[in-house]
Amino acid sequence: MTIAVLVKHVPDTTSKISVSNGRVDEASVSKWTISPYDEYALEAALQLKDSGVGSLVAITCGPTRSAKCLTEAAAVGADELIHIIVEEPLDSTQVQALLSAAVSRSEADWVLCGKQAADTNSGSTGPGVARIIGAACVGIVSEVCTEGDDLVATRSTPSGFERVSVQPPCVITFDKGSTELRRPNVRGIMMAKKKEVIVLTPDDLGVSIGSPSVSIDSHSPPPEKPPGQKFEGANSVPTVVGKLRDEANVI
Amino acid sequence: MEVTIIADVADGSLHPVTAQLVGAASSIGGVPTILCPGGVGASEASSITGVSKVVSVEGACFGAYDVGAWAEALEPLANGELILSSASPSGRELVASIGAMKGIPVMQDVTEVSEGISITRPIYSGKAIEQATVSPPCAISIRANSFDDPGSEGDAEISTVSQSGDIRISVKEALAKASERLDVSEANIVISGGRGMGDPANFEHLYEISEIVGAAVGASRAAVDTWEEISHSMQVGQTGKTVVPSLYIAVGISGAIQHLAGMRTSKYIVAINKDPDAPIFGVADYGIVATWEEALPVLKSELSNLVSN
Ligand SMILES: Cc1cc2nc3c(=O)[nH]c(=O)nc-3n(C[C@H](O)[C@H](O)[C@H](O)COP(=O)(O)OP(=O)(O)OC[C@H]3O[C@@H](n4cnc5c(N)ncnc54)[C@H](O)[C@@H]3O)c2cc1C
Ligand SMILES: Nc1ncnc2c1ncn2[C@@H]1O[C@H](COP(=O)(O)O)[C@@H](O)[C@H]1O
């Protein structure tokens, strides 16, 4: 069996996001990393691998810099690294077409990804890829294991938490789990540096991505809030409650 | 423009965001047809002002929570040039699946829509705002509380259609029921506690206040991770839930950037923290420098007075 994990290279969540000329200024981002939920997907994929289910292929799609997240995945145990290289920004439809083609090429039975990426915050990719490759999709999962040929996932639904089973092919989108994420050791880091990254272009995958169907008009910083008012001590609580009623009209 | 709205019925009843979707459609002159998965909430949906038709979509697939199967059943009926759902987890999955089936663009978590179609949505957890144009046909999920509810003066015709979808997920075991308490992502007022609450038992104060004003209780990740009693479903922030209530009250929460990511777009923010330099004060409209031990009893009595008057 092959397990694929989709990892996206995004600004670390503590990075400041600045905007220049109507676009998020990627050059000013101080630290890039694997998107947080993808780390949980990666950890779950590593656990499946450790339990002998199969080998692990990490796939990313993005510009040259994003190869780094594959090396991070290799350092904790990814066996094969696939980088779909596209320098220009893509919309979700294009990303899904490319990732789906790479997943099919790797003949993965299970595809693990994040419930949403830290930059787009969308949550389109997992269900979209599932649709394209004809797989089932289980969303908002915190844990997985196998039982025979089935995958058993703990997921959150509007009515609570449940354990569900699903057969391959399947896409699982990950939420934050309660498992500790493993950190790479020195040996892992050294090995990862030497590991080959398979670089593929859209042409290599036989995908013609066309032009984006969504055009980004502008990015802007979030609207400035008027400076807040600060009060000292618990005896200011009645004043604040009064303001919530009279100024803000929220209670 | 023909608009297809997929009602949010994931928890077995018509979610109020459905009326807001009608508000969104009407704001750009759209004529909405509402699809009610599993027939849930059809008569309630028909009374929303501005709705032209309601289709009660029946089928065995709606008996299971397998959004992929729902998408198969709904896709042939989603004929609008614009397809709208709520930006809840099931709503996002529905538009993503239907979008991929139809090969049309999908925009998630949209907070403003204007003709064109132009959309506004937060990206990077609200650290930036994206303005984009997408030409119909397209599918969009809308963030709750972004549009006004148009009222319930409507009387749209209801038709019933049977559809099928392939259920591929089977439930082995229910682990925990969602709490009866209001969920943070749905509430209009959220009061959250952090590590500064000192002990999970002290969250009882937050529950008491939440009952007075009909709020949901949330938590920081430090609270959720430290105390088993504080459920993961309460976590607000980057790796928790994003909330946009009218009022967010943060108690004993420092205001780490990942926490702010989940709540900074709330309309009004109140912070109670004993440290005058806590970063949470940077986003608070009203900051109270005090311990919760001193502040919460006063807050409780002030709010009960207000509500009983
Ligand atoms: C990838 C990643 C994702 C994350 N995602 C999230 C997320 O989704 N949500 C989230 O919340 N965090 C998240 N975090 C964690 C975040 O960085 C902080 O560690 C966390 O938010 C801190 O929680 P806290 O404010 O409750 O605790 P602390 O930072 O310990 O703050 C406690 C506060 O309580 C105050 N206090 C203490 N005693 C009292 C008292 N008696 N009365 C009043 N005030 C008091 C203190 O002054 C202090 O400001 C994430 C971190 C990472 C790295
Ligand atoms: N360019 C990409 N490369 C690799 N994985 C991606 C990419 N875009 C999205 N994903 C995966 O899909 C998830 C959801 O992304 P999104 O739909 O953009 O919110 C992410 O958490 C990743 O696991």
Folded structure, characterized:
With 251 residues, chain A is of the alpha/beta class. Helices cover 27% and strands 32% of the residues of chain A. Chain A is built from six helices and 15 strands. In chain A, helix 2 (67-76) packs across helix 5 and helix 3 (92-105) crosses helix 4 (125-133). Chain B has 309 residues and is of the alpha/beta class. Chain B folds into two domains: 2-142, HUPs (Rossmann fold); 164-308, TPP-binding domain (Rossmann fold, 3-Layer(aba) Sandwich), CATH 3.40.50.1220. Chain B contains eight helices and 16 strands. In chain B, the strands form three sheets. A seven-stranded parallel β-sheet of chain B has the order 5-9-4-1-2-3-10, sandwiched between helices. In chain B, strands 13-12-14-15-16 form a five-stranded parallel β-sheet. In chain B, strands 6-7-8 form a three-stranded antiparallel β-sheet, with no helix packed on it. In chain B, helix 3 packs across helix 4. Chain B starts with a strand and ends with a helix. Classes of the chains: A alpha/beta (251), B alpha/beta (309). The interface between A and B is large, with 84 and 92 residues. Strand 15 (229-232) of chain A pairs parallel with strand 16 of chain B. The structure holds flavin-adenine dinucleotide (FAD) and adenosine monophosphate. The site of flavin-adenine dinucleotide (FAD) has 28 residues of chain B, from helix 6, helix 7, strand 15 and helix 8.
